[in-house]
Amino acid sequence: MNRTDLPPSLDEYEHEELRVVRGPRSGITIAVAVHSTSRGPAIGGCRLKPYSSVGEAVADVLRLSRAMTLKCALADLPHGGGKTVAVVPGSPMNPHAREELILDIADTIGQLGGRYITGPDIGTTPEDMALIHRRTPGGAFCRPETLGGSGNSSAATARGVRAALDAAVGHVHHADSVAGLRIGVIGFGSVGRLLSESLAADGANVIITDVNDRLRSSALDRGIAWTGADLLREDLDVLVPAATGGLLDADAATACRARLVVGPANNQLASDDIDARLRERGITWVPDVIAGAGGIIHAVCREELACDEQETNARIDAIGAKVTRILTHADTHEITTLQAADAVIAHPEPTPARWPWSTHRP
Ligand SMILES: NC(=O)c1ccc[n+]([C@@H]2O[C@H](COP(=O)([O-])OP(=O)(O)OC[C@H]3O[C@@H](n4cnc5c(N)ncnc54)[C@H](O)[C@@H]3O)[C@@H](O)[C@H]2O)c1
């Protein structure tokens, strides 16, 4: 593919590389995008999803890999952004077909010669990362801990969201605790469940919704309220998107009644202009690229930078200070939080010299 053949969105997002292949074993279309390697090898998860078309998958991989560049830069990690998506069937794949697909993905990553490292995302697991790593050594983060990886990153992601939420609650609601706040969480999956438990334990009035109604009893068992109502239209102090991306479109931005939106779901904005619409309505949106960075910080710190758990947690908790900086910058300059996040990347603060990933390395 030469440059003039590229879809407009590739130029728009300024990617370094897009590789679209049909897996020779699986026959499944795989797209790997490398947005940037200017800070170091690109990193970003591997998503298996029944996309309706290859075009939809390519648009997703371009958007998601660009967001990973922002996420890595905001988290001060020595990496750029990349992503893998595969267009899987709507019904579950048999184990053999699935393994062939994972091997095809491993080979595609291997062809990039170390410029991109993957990790788990929707539809993939630490065990899949182990298979990728066996086929393409160094090609995947988050293998199971028993196999030398850092394992499932959900707890670290939830910890990071909590740091972001606490900082944003201080900024928006001038509260030093979540106690008594009405917090709606959309998505009771790995991250949403851990976050809800931590918020409820600290006295927040947590309300959950999830399309999977079978999770209802699990929430109620934990003393967490469940609703089938649309949380976007509920009176809330904080709305937490913890399900899939694209929740915040033009209609949602108009309907949203929470003053603060902060959560881990990737690509929450259906388009970048929604951030401005939320701001006009007095709603503070914390960019998902910082709120959801805990998992990637954990993986890189533990697997690559040899940080212990204490140092890794300190680094995840530092998401709070970064969020305060972004929100303050947005208010001071009357710009959106996404624009403020870009400004914060352009003007990084010195990080402690003991942090080997400091952007101010001598
Ligand atoms: N797990 C991580 O470490 C991590 C890291 C960064 C970002 N994220 C992002 O955070 C989000 C949640 O991650 P997770 O690991 O908890 O995912 P998960 O798949 O475990 O949980 C997602 C939950 O959302 C529910 N859901 C899906 N669509 C919904 C809808 N329209 N309304 C309500 N509920 C819906 C699902 O039923 C599921 O219970 C995802 O967008 C993910 O990409 C996760």
Automatic annotation (TrEMBL):
Gene3D superfamilies: Leucine Dehydrogenase, chain A, domain 1 (3.40.50.10860), NAD(P)-binding Rossmann-like Domain (3.40.50.720). Keywords: NAD, Oxidoreductase. Pfam families: ELFV_dehydrog, ELFV_dehydrog_N. SUPFAM superfamilies: Aminoacid dehydrogenase-like, N-terminal domain, NAD(P)-binding Rossmann-fold domains. Residues 151-352 form the Glutamate/phenylalanine/leucine/valine/L-tryptophan dehydrogenase C-terminal domain. The keyword Transmembrane helix does not apply. It comes from the Bacteria. Coiled coil: none annotated. Belongs to the Glu/Leu/Phe/Val dehydrogenases family. PANTHER family: LEUCINE DEHYDROGENASE, VALINE DEHYDROGENASE. This is Glu/Leu/Phe/Val dehydrogenase dimerization domain-containing protein. The lineage of its organism: Bacteria, Bacillati, Actinomycetota, Actinomycetes, Pseudonocardiales.
